[in-house]
Amino acid sequence: MKTTVLLAASVLPLAMAATASLSGGVAQAQEVSANVAMTTDYRFRGASLSDEAIAIQGGFDVAFESGFYAGTWGSSIEPVGNSEMELDFYAGYGGTLGELSYDVGVIGYFYPGAEDVAYGEVYGSLTGMIGLVETTGTIAYAPEQDNIGDDDNLYLNLSGSAPLGESGLSLMAGIGYETGAFGDPDGDGDDKVDWTIGIGGSAYGVDWTLAYIDTSEDTDGSDETAVFTISKAF
After folding, report:
1. Does position 18 have pLDDT exceeding 80, yes or no?
2. What is the distance between the alpha carbons of residues 195 and 25, in angstroms, rounded to a whole number?
3. What is the average per-residue pLDDT within 208-221?
4. What is the residue-wise DSSP string for 163-200?
5. DSSP-assigned beta bridge partners for residue 69
6. Closest CA to 1 of 66, 63, 76
7. Is there a contact between 107 and 118 (Cβ–Cβ < 8 Å)?
8. What is residue 3's DSSP assignment?
9. pLDDT, tens digit (0-9, with 9 covering 90-100), for 80-121
10. Which residue has the higher pLDDT, 22 or 1?
11. Deepest in the core among 87, 171, 210, 226, taking most CB within 10 A?
12. 131: Cβ contacts below 8 Å, ≥ 6 apart
């Protein structure tokens, strides 16, 4: 799912899935959900993809009892070629190993109207409890491909969230490391590190998060910032 990495890219929508039943031959969908969000800055792995401006986002997911899922997610972005939209398609499988949950899958990043910019990744994550902190470790790898300069890319992230007493709020934090095609946007020869700390909750029927995001890079889109996101799931 696009929201697999907690706060790795930006303040990610907090999903409360609504369910519906679908029947169709061999596979039977157990859950269908949709979400919409507005964020003050679409940050992906610490870097702004919306030119530090408001972005509108949304997606759909279908999950099966077997553990397989598929979905699509989109966001308005700063123009990439002739495209002002990112559209992702993904599919994966999730399950449990003892007290750990895992998730593996593939994702394609597309930019309708632009040529030679789409690329793909494989990803995997493990989630478990460390005390009161739900902790997730994630790896995303884009194999060498033409549209990312005949290079590959590796992103690692460690994130966690914990409730703030009985307030209904959660504290969230994450740190990421990136090397390869997207790992040095300022060209100084050092790999990129990004970090986030935020707080989230629910009010008036929507979920919200407020986060501080920064990176080790010295570019306009990688400056430190506060990002506020509201989201709604159906």
Report:
1. no
2. 45
3. 97
4. E-TTSS-EEEEEEEEEEETTS-TT-SSPPEEEEEEEEE
5. 63, 92
6. 63
7. no
8. T
9. 999 999 999 999 999 999 999 999 999 999 999 999 999 999
10. 1
11. 87
12. 162
